[in-house]
Write a structure and sequence with these properties.
By secondary structure, the chain is mostly helical. Among the domains are: 1-108, no CATH class; 264-528, no CATH class. The protein is built from 28 helices and three strands. The chain has a three-stranded mixed beta sheet with strand order 1-3-2. The protein is globular, with a radius of gyration of 24 Å.
């Protein structure tokens, strides 16, 4: 979770002395070997079985050791003369240095010990392991079982880190955590058949496992789940209920924690991969809210309503806009996804081979999480990606949002970009470690605008839903900075989003809780999208009839996630090449 909560730092420091160019290849190779060694889950994800059966060390002592190692890699990178490298290697060096510098700087903040949000935590992450593990061979199942055995110690180590956070004044705020205990208690079950961890053994025996071996594997898993894993969740629930929740924080802004102002400024720079200050981001958000609001007003009046508020009130309350069953919501989501498929070859020249599936968000996570999210697949493990849709509170999940939601989370948004990233000819660390929010989420938000040419926004409600989603991300710039810098209350943030978007109250409350407990992460979306749109406008203006939309999208996606300044340099080079 600390890796999720750690932001990406701006590139700094010039090389201090020259070294042979092949030193960079050695650093990249050794760094990758180290990365898969300290993260066994990553190793399994990329098909490296050296970490099978193991979990990472989440202790603060290990974080300090890793930061020291990262600093050593930075020193080696700084001895390489970047100017002497080929252009592609200059980018590799810059991105690796940024990742390492982020790790070092993030480790210096006490907020590193805040290991969960309303969006995710170590316990929900581990509960997703049955869906992430390969589970094709006996060795895969043995690895999975060994990780079940390792979980109690991992859980205790995470609890120890969280105790440190409490002692040092880094508790999460109280109000957003209401109901959080359900994400823990859902895994304290009386029978193994009710546990998500039993699912791999409830299905048919894989053909690669001998019939004589299957009962033994099942028996060991049954014992570990009920005697080790379930008690570990009970231990966490006891800690959360009796030690953590009574000492949660009354205030909501991260600025109220020790060193919080500096931490948030770091998060803002890093999540946007720019030098923008929180104040500058707040002002960009206000301008975007005004611009998108005018477009929403026009949709409402064109539809025959006196104003936007009247149209939104109708959209929020008309039952015809909502699915009646979870399956209906999934079916309609699938229909939108397949209609997008017909357009993808017209929009993107190089499409990924890896497909994605559609599933409901697991019940233990659905209550407190967002409307939908994407989980990348794995080329190495032959696992498709997953577009997860929240099927709870159906009266809060309007169907008119599905086009924008699916474009963002599925294709050509996250599933397309994340799958393609794994298939590019890049160093392994750029395929699997680099997740610049401004790029990844900026592309997904930009993808929502492509629904216009696809004809997906073919009713006033869908058009309003499309603008509401863009407005949602603009509001994030205002609300996130408002909460963490300007002293906004949770209620003020909720009221602001309700007034400016067509999102339901339940969704708005879940989103605001996310911004409170995960400071700065929401800033990257709109900043990234604005950058991509600006670069597209530059390309269209410069190239005129030579502009090719498919080629532009290939240029954006073709190097994987990169910081915004690197993306601009790459698109400028692409424009120059097309023009020449």
């Amino acid at each position: 979770m600390r890796r999720l909560l750690t932001a990406l730092l701006l590139l700094s420091a010039a090389p201090v002395s020259a070294a042979p160019a092949d030193d960079l290849a050695a650093v990249i190779r050794e760094h990758w070997a180290w990365a898969v060694r300290i993260d066994p889950g990553l190793a399994t994800e990329v098909g490296d079985h050296s970490g099978d059966g193991k979990l990472s060390d989440p202790s603060l002592a290990e974080a300090d050791r890793e930061a020291a190692t990262a600093a050593g890699f930075i020193a080696r990178l700084d001895r390489i003369d970047a100017a002497a490298l080929p252009p592609a290697d200059r980018v590799n060096r810059a991105i690796l240095r940024r990742l390492l510098a982020t790790q070092v700087e993030g480790n210096a903040f006490g907020q590193r010990a805040m290991t969960f949000t309303t969006y995710s935590g170590w316990h929900t992450g581990f509960a997703g392991s049955p869906d992430r593990e390969p589970l094709l061979t006996k060795a895969d199942y043995v690895s999975y079982i060994d990780r079940l055995a390792a979980y109690p110690a991992f859980n205790r180590a995470e609890i120890a880190v969280t105790r440190t956070a409490l002692a040092q004044g880094y508790a999460q705020p109280c109000v957003p955590l209401q109901g959080f205990e359900k994400s823990i208690s859902a895994h304290i079950v009386p029978a193994v058949e009710q546990s998500v961890f039993w699912r791999p053994f409830a299905r048919a025996r894989p053909a690669a496992i001998a019939a004589a071996d299957w009962p033994e594997l099942q028996a060991r898993a049954r014992t570990l789940i009920m005697a080790s894993v379930v008690p570990a969740y009970a231990e966490l629930l006891d800690f959360y209920t009796h030690d953590y929740a009574p000492h949660c924080r009354a205030t909501v802004g991260i600025g109220d924690t020790p060193g919080g102002a500096g931490y948030y400024a770091y998060r803002a720079r890093a999540e946007t991969t720019t030098a923008l200050t929180p104040d500058a981001i707040h002002k960009i958000g206000l301008a975007e809210v005004a611009r998108i609001g005018a477009a929403m007003d026009k949709v409402a009046t064109d539809a025959g309503y006196k104003d936007r508020a009247a149209f939104v009130a109708h959209m929020r309350t008309d039952p015809s806009f909502y699915a009646r069953t979870p399956q209906e919501l999934l079916d309609k989501s699938a229909t939108v996804a397949k209609s997008i498929d017909a357009w993808l070859p017209r929009l993107i020249g190089r499409l990924p081979r890896l497909p994605f599936s559609l599933k409901a968000i697991p019940a233990d996570q659905a209550e407190g999480t967002t409307t939908a999210y994407s989980e990348p697949g794995s080329v190495a493990n032959g696992r498709a990606g997953v577009y997860y849709v929240n099927t709870t509170h159906l009266d809060q999940r309007p169907l008119f949002e599905l086009p924008a939601l699916t474009l963002h989370e599925a294709a050509p948004g996250h599933q397309t970009q994340l799958s393609l990233q794994q298939e590019l000819d890049l160093p392994e660390f750029r395929k699997h470690l680099v997740t610049f929010t401004a790029f990844v989420e900026g592309w997904a938000l930009y993808s929502e605008s492509l629904g216009e040419e696809m004809g997906l926004y073919d009713t006033p409600e869908k058009r309003m839903g499309r603008y509401s989603y863009e407005m949602w991300r603009a509001c994030r710039l205002v609300v996130d900075t408002g909460i963490h810098v300007q002293g906004w209350s949770r209620d003020r943030a909720i009221d602001y989003m309700l007034a400016n978007t067509a999102l339901s109250r339940h969704n708005v409350e879940a989103e605001v809780n996310r911004y409170i407990t995960w400071p700065g992460q929401a800033l990257g979306y709109k900043i990234g999208e604005l950058t991509i749109k600006r670069l597209r406008a530059k390309a269209e203006t410069t190239l005129g009839p030579r502009f090719d939309e498919r080629a532009f999208h290939d240029a954006v996606l073709g190097n994987g996630p990169v910081p915004m300044d690197v993306l601009e340099a790459q698109i400028d080079a692409w424009i120059a090449a097309r023009k020449g």
